[in-house]
Specification:
This protein is an alpha+beta fold. Helices cover 53% and strands 24% of the residues. The chain has a two-stranded antiparallel ribbon with strand order 1-2. 0% of the residues are buried.
Length: 86
């Protein structure tokens, strides 16, 4: 890599890094809203007698990168088994 391109690469890296941070901030806001909606659904479901699905397996993984932390959440919910051919 030559010195002529170093500034251009640095500027592109900084711009991409800033955009990623903004996106992860928005994702975190969406996760907060999702949690609130799930709580409302749970409360209202109890009031009208709808049984709640039971999570069978939860996974939370954090990946730390320079200047960035990525959090991955996965919840597997056991549902009804469907008959073959339907």
């Amino acid at each position: 890599m030559t010195n002529d391109n170093t500034e251009a690469y640095r500027a592109a890296f900084d711009e991409a890094s800033t955009e990623l941070k903004e996106l992860f901030g928005k994702i975190e806001q969406l996760n907060v809203r999702k949690d609130r909606v799930e709580q409302v659904v749970t409360v209202l479901g109890r009031k009208i007698g709808i049984p709640q699905p039971v999570a069978s397996h939860r996974v939370r993984l954090k990946t730390h990168l320079p200047g960035l932390t990525v959090v991955t959440r996965l919840t597997a919910i056991q549902g009804k088994k469907e008959e073959a051919g339907k």
